[in-house]
DNA sequence: CCTGGCCTAGATAGATCAATCTAGAGAGAA
DNA sequence: TTCTCTCTAGATTGATCTATCTAGGCCAGG
């Protein structure tokens, strides 16, 4: 049983890594299995639905993990405004450290499937919605008016996702730096 | 000659449409040629480098076209702040009208190729840089301090790209609406 | 000991992919 | 007309993709 779950988890981990870097269509099942040291049989045993089922589970799993990671940054210190700025800076540092590979784990896939694979599109929508409601609650807990909180959460997460696009394409953290500063300003203004 | 250029342009137009909706890896050459009513021979006559050369030219072409489209919105009226808000609203309307298919023409491809295809990554980086410098100049021309202009341009474009991700995944213009309002506020504040 | 369920293992099939190749249509110049 | 160049046309090739299939290893319960 332990060996079983280890194989399944290894497959999921490798999938998340490759989907993040190359997207869904650009990643072959063979490539995933090779890197995970797993045979074909294991994949179709653990994921009878094939690549799509693997992708759906990877999206939800990686989405939850990333939510935890970001939440950790946003709760790191007592000052939310400083935490927001630090979160953007940390995301930029991760990009530099990973040769601009490790940005948002589901962004590329979300764009790929938005008009081509409805079940997977729903999986990405669920993940995004969970991020939004989490950040909205955090803003409300930090004296942002309820009416303003959700739009502000939308703006912060949009800026982060958009900055990832510019950062990876340009191999620069300029967009992340600019967005971090601007989002900190917006949060500070909304806390009044 | 006229028929020639028509075939080439038809291939480029269809490529832009499909890359935007399905990404690069998710779009087959065959699918492009079928929809463009063109045979294999024509593709490899006009683009000897194959799919990669077609993609590079599509990225630059679609990027330039989209820059013109957005610039048109940002110059539509006398008030830049109002124009920014209107540009986000217009982008949302386009998404609704096209069943959330027509967002940024190169965003999906940019994420796909960022760590997998260096020539294409450079093409996307060039397009983004041209958008940035164009918007920066527009901000400067509207009384935004030179030091603030480029970061602000980064924030605005990042918010737009990020909002596209949320909009397409969630089939909602909520993110675009929130970002439009926030970006208008930021521009107004920077103009002082 | 041995038997049944869970998981690993990889060969194989069948579809689809990008790319090449040969052939011919069409227009303009001599 | 006849030659030539440009572009169209699609069959074909070889690689690669996802998925299935059969077989065997491993471990727990009887």
Short description:
The structure is a homodimer of 192-residue chains. Chain A has helices at 2-22, 29-36, 40-46, 51-74, 80-97, 107-113, 118-141, 146-170, 174-190.
Question: How would you describe this protein?
Answer:
The structure is a homodimer of 192-residue chains. Chain A is mostly helical and 192 residues long. Chain A has a single domain, classed as Tetracycline Repressor, domain 2. The first copy, chain A, has helices at residues 2-22, 29-36, 40-46, 51-74, 80-97, 107-113, 118-141, 146-170, 174-190. In chain A, helix 1 (2-22) crosses helix 2 (29-36). Chain A starts with a helix and ends with a helix. The model of chain A has no long low-confidence stretch (mean pLDDT 96). Chains A and B meet through helix 6, helix 7, helix 8 and helix 9 of A and helix 6, helix 7, helix 8 and helix 9 of B. The structure holds a DNA duplex (30 and 30 nucleotides).
The CATH C-level class name of chain A = Mainly Alpha
Give the overall pLDDT of chain A as a whole number. 96
Helix content of chain A: over 70%
What's the story with the biggest beta sheet of chain A? none
Name the pair of protein chains with the most residues at their interface, and give those residue counts. Answer: A-B, 49 and 50 residues
Strand fraction of chain A? under 5%
**What's the end-to-end separation of chain A, in Å?**
54 Å
Radius of gyration of chain A: 18 Å
Overall geometry of chain A comes to elongated
CATH topology of chain A: Tetracycline Repressor, domain 2
The tally of domains of chain A stands at 1
Q: Any low-confidence stretches of chain A, pLDDT <50, length ≥5?
A: none
Oligomer: homodimer
Helical/strand content category of chain A: mainly alpha
CATH architecture of chain A: Orthogonal Bundle
CATH level-4 homologous superfamily of chain A: Tetracycline Repressor, domain 2
Instruction: Give the number of helices of chain A.
Output: 9
Strand-and-helix sequence of chain A, N→C?
HHHHHHHHH
Q: How many beta-strand elements of chain A?
A: 0
